[in-house]
Design a protein that fits this description.
With about 325 residues, the protein is mostly helical. The N and C termini lie close together (about 10 Å).
Amino acid sequence: MRGPIKNKYIPSGWSGAVLILYLLLVIIAIVFDSDTKASMVDIQNQYIGPFSQSGSVFGTDALGRNVMWGLINGAKISFIIAGVSTLITVIISLIIGMAAGYFGNDKLKLAWPVLIVQFLITGLIIFYLTFGTSRITIFLLLILLILVSIFGSKIFPNQRKWNVPLDQIVLGSIKVSRSIPLILLIVVLVSIINYRGVWPIILVISMFRWRPLTRYIRGEVLKLKNQNFVSAAEGFGIGTMRLWLKHLLPQVVEPVWVSAIYAFMGAILIEATLSFLGIGLELETVSWGSMLNASRAYFSAWWLAVFPGLSIFLVILALKDHKKKISEAELTNYLT
């Protein structure tokens, strides 16, 4: 059984072929600078249909831009946004989910200076996300917030510590955010942020896509923390971080893969939706969503809707099929 189980994450069949083609398009886009080629304007060749002129296999749009390079660039844009936002989402979900499940409502105690510093840093992150333009500043503030959360109690060992009902806070945040449609939250926040680009979309998606995975990880940790091996590790005085990394993380990381595929699919659809609405990316950036948006100006140019729409459909369908195969392999492994 070990051979098939080890290979269950490798795409196969028709879905594997689609995903390999998707990755090849991303590589071509990076190697041949698809941003420049997809944005080249040729007014004299507006709305040329597919296969009607050499160099324009999939036709051109209202500005004479090559649709083929637009599709290739759209693959790169969707892959970068979906890949990076999924990675950030998984990291956030692991940290919050494991912390909420392990500490519960009565196990986490922080010194009051740490709470104040965390509150101030969080406020600065929100401020820079809304009004700032420096991605490096936001990234450094996030790193600082993580470091303060991990080492704050060691910096202020003699200060009075307050009990933090972390599990209650996390569950309450999830319940409140679930009461508002996800796409509405993202559209509003992207509209508020005063600059366009790939990174604002990545940050916004990551801020709201952590909820389902966090709940799953929290539930798994709740089951694990009462088992004998965790109690034995705590009895030997193993530190919290070492306990998480060596004993809890390996138990929850494998099922996270399926949730990561869901997050990847969701990020592709969110990026396409935002681009279709004309928000998020720079106006000159060509993506699958922006091409669908451009198709509304001239309905006779069917290729502007069919090719990017078909690209989104095939990638999402291939990812769903791959996810299904992983789930079936895990079930077979469990039953045997």
